[in-house]
Amino acid sequence: MAKLLSIQTGMPAFYPADEKSSLGSKPWLTGFFKSPTADTVTIGSGGIEGDGQADLISHGGPDKAICVYASEHFSFWRDFLNNQLIDAGGFGENFTTAGLLEHQVCIGERFQIGSAIVEISQPRQPCWKLARRWDCKTLTPEVQRTGKTGWYFRVVQPGEARAGETFQPVADRPVSSEWTIAAANKVMYGRDTPKPKIQALVSVEALSESWKTQLNKRL
User: Fold this and answer.
1) For residues 58 and 83, is the Cβ–Cβ distance under 8 A?
2) Rounded to 5 degrees, what angle do the CA atoms 184, 186, 192 make?
3) Phi, psi of 111 (to 5 degrees)
4) Whether 151 contacts 177, CB under 8 Å
5) How many Å apart are CA 105 and CA 177, to the nearest integer?
6) Per-residue pLDDT reduced to its tens digit, 160-209
7) 103-115: per-residue pLDDT in tens?
8) pLDDT of amino acid 22
9) For 114, left (φ over 0), alpha (ψ -120 to 50), or beta?
10) How many beta carbons lie within 10 A of that of residue 3, not counting itself?
11) Structural domains in the chain?
């Protein structure tokens, strides 16, 4: 049974340059660093109360209200990053899950968590801040290459949730099992993706507007 292991929230803050870091030569503003909470959180259309993003063009908004990452991937990244301690919140995610993976969940799939209902809108596109956080310039392309990206939820029904609760599938409309997060990643990052395949993904109603825009530019 899929479970919400941990919830992380945090507001944007400035962090100083790090002379020891190969990628940390300048101060930076980021909402990447989030802290776990055992309290019940309030979930609205814009995300979790008390959480925020620094770059509102690339992050946040109704289609990217909650960032989700699978705990099953952390052991892989610990090895990749020479045993650095990556745990819940290590990828800047709000929800750390168990039992939900990119090849299993689909665009438009809905779940109830606590009293809230959420819907998968798009894969997460890792940015330079992930690489800077772990001082590894190859991390972002490696996340794309492996498909261990995580994804975003939009909020269909506001409510409350807390860590430890289970995700209950909400089968209130048909969802194409063809368009898993893994399949969508292959279309976005594939070099020779056929146009009909791109068009098919763009036609998925629940796909986020930002992904539709990017894919339409390729067409």
Assistant:
1) no
2) 125
3) -135, 150
4) no
5) 8
6) 999 999 999 999 888 999 999 999 999 999 888 999 999 999 999 999 99
7) 999 999 999 999 9
8) 85
9) left
10) 17
11) 3-218 (2.40.33.20)
CB 123 within 8 A of CB 42: no
Q: Which helix (H) or strand (E) holds 188?
A: helix 181-189
The whole-angstrom separation of Cα 181 and Cα 218 is 19
> Residue 212 — pLDDT band, cuts 50, 70, 90?
very high
| Amino acid (1-letter code) at residue 93 | E
Q: Is 67 a residue whose pLDDT tops 90?
A: yes
The Cα–Cα gap between 55 and 149 comes to: 19
Quote the mean pLDDT of the chain. 95
Is residue 75 classed as helix, strand or coil in its secondary structure?
Answer: helix
Question: Could you tell me where the beta strands, DSSP code E, fall in 171-215?
Answer: none
Gap between the Cα atoms of 145 and 22, Å rounded: 22
